[in-house]
Each structure stands twice: as C-alpha cells, then as structure tokens.
C-alpha cells in the first residue's frame, strides 16, 4: 500500500518532512481529501506535526543521524515508514560494529557509572540489560557503595561473617535489602530497595507488656500476617501498658515511630480470613496514649480511641478487622550520634473499665518521608 502512495515525479511537486526520504504527489492529495496514509504493520492513527514544507528555522534541525521518515498528506498528518524501528535500534548498537554509527554501546563504562550514581537501584538494574557497558557499570562497587548507608558495616556485623565475606557491594546491597534479624529474631533491620535507607521493626516479644505471662489476659497467636509470625492478643485486662526500647547506630535522618495494631481476633477458615470481635470492648471509652522519648530530650506523644467506628481516609475502611499503623511521632538522628536510644510506650491505665480484643504486632521505625511516599503509593 505504501508503494502506491510514493511517486517518482520531480521534487517540486512533493511535500515531505525530510526531502531525502519520502515523496508524495501533490495531485494525489488534491484528489483524496485529508486522508492520512496507512502502513499495514504500523498503527493507522495519524501522527501530528507541523505543516509542510519543513523549515529548519521554524521547527529546528532534522534528526542528527538517520532521520525518521514520514509520509504526509495535505493537512500535515502522517505515519512512520516501516524502517523506523531499524533507525531507533541503532542507538543500542555500535559497540560491536554492527551499527552504522555510534550508539549507547560506545559510551565509556566509567561515564555510565557516573550517571548511575544519580539513579535508584531498580533503575540501575533495568538499564543493565541494555548492553555490555551498562551491565559492567551496573556491577561497579563505586556505584553500589553510594547506595549503601554510611553505617552498613554495623548491619553486616549482625550477620555471620561467612554470609558477606568476598561479596561485591552490589551483592551486599541485595543481602541487606532482605530482613536481617537480630536479638533472638525479635528485631529486624533492612534497607529500603529504592532509597537504601535503614528501616527497623521490633516484635511484641521484645517489649515489656503488663500481664503477658498470665494466660487469662494475653495469648500468643501464630500468624502469617506478621513478619515475626506471632502476635500478642489481649483478651481482657484493666491496666494496659506496653513499653519498649531500642539502641542502634541509625544513620543521620528523620525517623517515624509507629505501632502496628489490630482490633479483634483474626483467623483463617476454609481459606478465608475471618475476624472475631467477641472480646473487643473498652477501646472507645478512653483514649490510648502513645509516647516516645530519647536521652537527648526529644519527645512526642499521641492520643486516640482505637475503636472509633468511622471511615478512615488513609485506609478506606473501618479500623476494625484491619492492621493499622498508629504514628507516635518523629525523632532526629544527627551524624554526631554514635548510638541512638529510643524509648516508646502505649498506655491505657484508666481502671474504671476493662478492655480487650486487641492484637499487638510490632513497632516500626522508618524514615519519615519514605513512610509518607509509600502511603501515597509512590514507592512499592
């Protein structure tokens, strides 16, 4: 069909974006009114570009090498020639001499590595598939050391030496981006896979919980919904208090501390998740007080009723039957802090009423803006 549109008449009677490429007869356009040309193995939707004839002063210089040819009609509509793919594919050739000119494969590996310094780890891994130079730069220790936190050696010290000896910086990043348990598996550290920043989770087993030894009040429930595979379930109690402390050389950053809680008891029946609110009571009478403080004087607190049956904008559902992160506050770590100590608590000590039906999973310590970006769906 393309052959019927291209004529061999003189250049004076033709319009094209690049004169050395396609030629279209003017009298053909006068006979067929404003109908874009079609190529069978490309889309028939017209591409819009400036009126013809092409003027470099108005629309800039043409493509510097192997310009992409177009066919046009009288209204400046057109479609790509079938060799468009071959022209664009030349960008990835050239390293092994297969292309007619320089391409991405001719960029020096150290230059590619300098560009990778400004990209995220997922972007680097995607670009590594382009060619050999990009793949070599994506394995550079200098690139991946810039993605690791300055104290990544403290995280490695939590692992057996044989797990990280003789590993490249890329492999170390991959190792630390997976959960690193310590303190008998009751605390977990990991690096965020996009930003390389340090995150922490503390199990309820690492906290001091009032009455946790008495089975009349508390039970440990195994579950797959926790990274620690167990949560503390409160049946009924009058005095409720949970305390914890963590000491670790966090990198300089602003961190958010939050409790992960669940109203009601959950289980799986016939492959479906079901919730039981039989013991749930008392959380709508008086608020629960969350607190955090550090030895250098930083403090934060927050109060709320856990069982307020209302629409929650952040989660799009009621609080009952869902895991909810209750933000306690933020604390700042500077470069001058060798080891950061953070204490946190959750209390409801009003003994005028009992309360129960609450699951306590863990406490999260995550960089503040990272937590907000994940909540908005920017990071997955």
Description:
With 380 residues, the protein is an alpha+beta fold. The protein contains eleven helices and 18 strands. The protein has helices at residues 2-5, 26-31, 56-59, 84-89, 109-116, 121-127, 132-137, 141-145, 152-156, 169-176, 368-375, and strands at residues 47-48, 70-72, 77-80, 180-182, 187-191, 198-203, 208-209, 218-222, 230-234, 240-248, 253-263, 265-269, 272-276, 288-293, 299-304, 323-333, 340-348, 358-367. Strands 4, 5, 6, 8, 9, 11, 16 and 18 form an eight-stranded antiparallel beta sheet that branches. It has a five-stranded antiparallel beta sheet with strand order 7-10-17-14-15, with no helix packed on it. Strand 14 (288-293) and strand 15 form a beta hairpin. Residues 1-90, 93-97, 311-317 and 376-380 have low confidence and may be disordered.
């Amino acid at each position: 069909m393309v052959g019927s549109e291209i004529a061999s008449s003189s250049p004076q009677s033709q319009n094209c974006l690049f004169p050395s490429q396609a030629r279209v007869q003017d009298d053909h356009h006068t006979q067929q009114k404003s109908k874009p040309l079609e190529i069978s193995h490309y889309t028939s939707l017209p591409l819009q570009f400036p009126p013809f004839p092409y003027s470099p002063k108005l629309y800039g210089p043409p493509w510097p090498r192997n310009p992409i040819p177009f066919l046009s009609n009288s209204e400046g509509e057109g479609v790509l020639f079938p060799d468009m793919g071959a022209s664009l594919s030349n960008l990835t050739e050239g390293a092994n001499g297969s292309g007619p000119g320089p391409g991405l494969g001719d960029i020096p590996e150290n230059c590619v590595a300098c560009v990778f310094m400004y990209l995220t780890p997922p972007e680097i891994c995607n670009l590594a598939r382009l060619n050999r130079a990009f793949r070599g730069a994506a394995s550079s220790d200098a690139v991946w050391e810039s993605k690791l936190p300055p104290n990544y050696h403290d995280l490695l010290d939590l692992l057996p030496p044989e797990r990280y000896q003789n590993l490249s910086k890329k492999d170390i990043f991959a190792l630390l981006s997976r959960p690193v348990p310590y303190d008998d598996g009751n605390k977990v550290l990991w690096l965020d896979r996009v930003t390389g920043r340090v995150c922490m989770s503390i199990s309820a087993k690492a906290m001091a919980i009032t009455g946790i030894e008495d089975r009349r009040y508390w039970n440990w429930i195994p579950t797959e919904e926790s990274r620690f595979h167990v949560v503390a379930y409160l049946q009924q109690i009058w005095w409720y208090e949970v305390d914890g402390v963590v000491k670790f050389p966090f990198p300089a950053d602003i961190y958010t501390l939050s409790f992960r809680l669940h109203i009601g008891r959950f289980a799986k029946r016939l492959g479906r998740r079901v919730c039981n609110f039989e013991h749930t009571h008392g959380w709508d009478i008086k608020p629960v007080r969350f607190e955090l403080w550090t030895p250098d004087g930083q403090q934060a607190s927050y109060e709320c009723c856990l069982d307020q049956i209302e629409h929650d904008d952040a989660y799009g559902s009621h609080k009952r039957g869902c895991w909810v992160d209750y933000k306690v506050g933020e604390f700042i770590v500077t470069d001058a802090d060798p080891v950061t100590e953070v204490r946190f608590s959750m209390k409801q000590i009003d003994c005028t009423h009992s309360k129960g039906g609450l699951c306590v999973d863990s406490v999260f310590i995550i960089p503040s803006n990272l937590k907000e970006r994940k909540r908005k769906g920017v990071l997955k």
